[in-house]
Amino acid sequence: MKKIIAVMMALAMLMSSFGAFAEQESAPVRTDLNVFSDLEPETLDVDVSVSTAILFRNIYATLYRLNAYNQMVPELAESYSVNDDYTEYTFVLKDNIFFSDGTPITAEDVKYTYDRGIETAIDYFYAIKSVETPDSKTVVITLNEPSNAFMADMVSEHMSVMSKAAIEGGMDVANCPKITSGAYYVTEWDKDNHRIHLQANPYYLNGEPAIKTVTICYKLDGPAYEAILNGTIDYVTNIANDSDEIAYMRAADSIELMPYDNNSWNFLALNQLQPWYADVNVRRAIACALDLEYIIGIALDGQGTPAPLIITGAISGYLPGFSDSPYNLKQAKEYMAASSYPDGFTMTLEISDTTGAKVAEAVKTLLQEINIDVVIVEEDGNLLVNNALDGTYDATFLSYSMYSGNISHAIPLYSSGELHISRGNDTEIGDLMQRSLAVDGDERDALLSQAYTMMRDQWPYIGLYWITVRDAKALNLKLTEPIVSEKYILSNMYWE
To answer: Which of 104, 90, 184 is nearest to 142 (CA)?
Structure first.
């Protein structure tokens, strides 16, 4: 009998343990998320800045978007077509698409949103001449001039669709857009505590997200890595590669770092109003003397991608074969010997931050090999940019954002105007890129190939790198798609 009782007690304990285990297994999975970003926006209205881009991507939908592999796919639109000269784009909306209050999204909402952008003079809307709506599902956009790269702009968060009825009805779109087209809507912007609170949109076209409530924090009392470790924060975006926090995050078993290249092209600008930079052989010598892998390794701790030209695979005008670094010290010395300055000269290189100082030291070391003595001068960032725009500089480091990856965004650097920072007389590169926007197929590729060949031969700007930045997250926060850009998607996340 004692044995029977003992067996029954053991079974009872086992069943009790199993019940506790089953109860533990069925515990609810978290549906909240706390995100940290150090860039608090000024407004949540149509004027999208770097600080609002991550919010706009999550609270508003666009007609087309980029998926996790940088492929353009429909979002609110079902399809689009374009006329023969690339001046008129026609979009057909999907059926059964709704704002977060359950009201239908129509072509009139798209027109209203884009007309607001045009009236506000947002850069992305400069290309648009008019927006028409033949019916409730059709949007016709006419451009001021031909552009076969316009769709690269359409995937930008700048082209988000807002509710005409909500805004005209008095919704505080600048501070608390409660009716949105995206995966989330804003319930509160607590400006005193630097927090924006989001709620999942039950009518979102891709289905209600697994994460139901999100708090975006713009101010922390301590380091971000400590906030992740103690559970205050679950996700941190856009951590610079020279941040002191990266080492701590790497060492933490419960934190995952996700590196990616940002969309700012970092380059060396040479003022061609100076006679030494007006000499094409000097520019060629400098380009061949700069070992980009060395610069990235010593100045950026290896966290970057060489970018001798502004063209990469993420840009709408990309052509293979133009991205290789020209580093060749023997060739650099030959170019310098053939120039008007075979004995070298002094380069005054303006920089504005710690990373720039490290890059400058690497450049100084490399250019000594071709008898160019680099004097590094630290300037205030705003003054450095103003000097570049005014042409009152010798040489400087700058970064240039390619936004959504439209090749037309690069044209101002290579055409006459305030952004033609190199001050060279030849603007044919910009003209070729501009002409490429009006044609397609082999003709387009031939024009771009000619433009890129000239970039590589003349070096009006000497590209350096795309810099690596990182997001960080708690280990058990999962993604349905990989991170490939700084526009992280909250509806892409779930707790495991």
So the answer is: 90
Please give the share of the chain, as a percent, with pLDDT higher than 70.
Answer: 91
pLDDT of res. 181: 97
Q: DSSP per residue over 367-388, as a string?
A: HGGGTEEEEEEE--HHHHHHHH
Could you tell me how many residues make up the chain? 496
In order, the DSSP letters of 271-319 are -TTSHHHHSHHHHHHHHHH--HHHHHHHHSTT-EEE-SSS--TTSTT--
Instruction: Tell me the per-residue pLDDT of 7-40, one tens digit each, with 9 for 90 and over.
Output: 444 444 444 444 544 445 556 789 999 999 988 8
Residue 107 to residue 222: CA distance in whole angstroms: 46
Contact 380, 351 (CB under 8 A): no
What is the per-residue pLDDT across 144-156, written as a single tens digit (0 to 9) for each?
Answer: 999 988 998 888 8
Q: Are 46 and 56 in contact (CB under 8 A)?
A: no
Q: Is 101 left (phi over 0), alpha (psi -120 to 50) or beta?
A: alpha
Integer Cα distance of 176 and 59 in angstroms: 11
CA distance 310 to 312: 7
Question: Which amino acid type is present at position 241?
Answer: N
Q: What is the DSSP string of 450-472?
A: HHHHHHHHH-SEEEEEEEEEEEE
What phi and psi, each to the nearest 5 degrees, are found at residue 464?
-115, -60
First to last CA, the chain: 47
